[in-house]
Amino acid sequence: MSLVRFLARSLVAGAFISDGIKKATSPDESAPEAEAFTSAVAPLVQRVAPAGYSSHVPEDARTWVRYGGIAEIIGGLMFATGLGRRIGALLLAKASVLNVAIAYPGKDSSADDKKAARPELFHHLALLGATILASQDLQGRPSLAWRASHGAERAGKEITETTEDLSKRARKAATKAEKKAQKLASQARKEARKVAKKLER
Q1: H/E/C letters for each residue in 65-101?
Q2: CB 38 within 8 A of CB 64
Q3: Tens digits of residue pLDDT in 17-58
Q4: Terminal CA-to-CA distance of the chain, rounded, Å?
Q5: How far apart are CA 34 and CA 98, in angstroms?
Q6: CA nearest to 45, candidates 61, 33, 57, 35
Q7: Which residues contact 9 (CB under 8 A, 6 or more apart)?
Q8: How many beta carbons lie within 10 A of that of residue 68, not counting itself?
Q9: What is the CA radius of gyration of the chain?
Q10: 41: closest CA among 72, 64, 69, 62?
Q11: Are 23 and 71 in contact (CB under 8 A)?
């Protein structure tokens, strides 16, 4: 792990961890802003979730905010330490969706309120983009799909080269065998002529 990557991840994770602690310990502060989002999302999640789990999906905004804060803390720690780095980034990305919804001004907000909310909204949108990008980061290593296709291509080339090499060897062996057979046939004809001459005498 490079020092630059570690510092960059720690800075991003620090913002999420501090926000997560605040949400987990004091969810009432953000619950009113999250109400519109959670009231729309909770029924959807309950429909999509398996039958045994749908009843456990929370409906109140306060619980959603607390869960979002816990996800920020866990995801931030994973992302900063590098233990489950990409999974941690994915957790932060999911938590960022709730943060964007909380920062988004309501329909009844005044023009001044919308203007005042814009910097925080863009802040959370930027963090959402950063976490999505981080969840796809392979730290310079090629993806599994690229390695699989490259490995298959290399194996195909090796098989082709081996086949061509075997074909060349087979042709050489056939040519050598043919020459040897011709030589033996020539020797046999000479011996036959010698025997014929002796019999004529």
Answers
A1: HHHHHHHHHHHHHHHHHCCCHHHHHHHHHHHHHHHHH
A2: yes
A3: 999 999 999 988 888 888 888 888 888 887 887 877 777 788
A4: 97
A5: 7
A6: 57
A7: 79, 80, 82, 85, 134
A8: 27
A9: 37
A10: 64
A11: no
Mean pLDDT for the chain overall = 81
Q: Residue 94 and residue 69: Cα distance in Å, rounded?
A: 11
Q: Model confidence over 103-144: pLDDT tens digits?
A: 888 777 788 888 888 888 898 889 888 888 888 877 655 555
Give phi and psi for 137, each to the nearest 5.
-75, 125
Cα(179)–Cα(93) distance, integer angstroms: 74
Q: Determine how many CB atoms are found less than 10 A away from the CB of residue 139.
A: 10
Contact 30, 65 (CB under 8 A): yes
**Structure tokens, 141:** 């290593």
- Give the CA angle between residues 189, 191, 197 to the nearest 5°: 105
Q: What is the C-alpha to C-alpha distance for residues 43 and 41, in angstroms, rounded to an integer?
A: 6
- On the CB side of 161, how many CA atoms lie within 13 Å of its CA? 6
